[in-house]
Design a protein that fits this description.
One of its GO terms (molecular function) is protein serine/threonine phosphatase inhibitor activity. Belongs to the PP1 inhibitor family. Pfam families: PP1_inhibitor (PF05361). The chain is mainly α. The protein has a domain of 76 residues. The protein has four helices and no strands. Helix 3 crosses helix 4. It is extended and about 70 Å long.
């Protein structure tokens, strides 16, 4: 039978996460603050668009969310294209495996994308690429 040892009988190394007494006033308490580069309204529009895309793809492919084919409809990529015709062609290329009519989806997607801002990734120091 194994012997049970208690912390009082067996010295073991310990880790303390408490501030030592008497130093609480010396350590400034920082409040959490998140710096957001993007406009919250634009981020909300993106999230709503992504949710809408998923629901539409579920209808187009007659499946549940986890069964939707891996399609990456990149809004920033669509915004980089010079015309709606080229955007439509790009989206239709992504939907090549969809056998249901998808013209209404493509038209609605392009309408929702129109007027959106491109979200660029924050640059690292020393990185000169946009």
């Amino acid at each position: 039978m194994a012997a049970v040892t208690s912390p009082e009988t067996t010295p073991q190394p310990r880790v303390y996460f408490q501030t030592p007494p008497g130093t609480e006033e010396e350590v400034p308490q920082k409040q959490g603050r998140v710096t957001v580069k993007y406009d919250r309204k634009e981020l909300r529009r993106r999230l709503n668009l992504e949710e809408w895309i998923v629901s539409q793809l579920m209808n187009l492919y007659d499946c549940e969310e986890d069964e939707v084919p891996e399609l990456e409809i990149d809004v920033d990529e669509l915004l980089d294209l010079p015309s709606d015709v080229e955007r439509a062609i790009r989206v239709k290329m992504l939907l090549v495996d969809c056998y249901k009519p998808n013209d209404d989806f493509v038209a609605a997607l392009l309408e929702k994308v129109r007027g959106m801002q491109k979200l660029s990734t924050p640059q690292k120091k020393g990185d000169l690429t946009p």
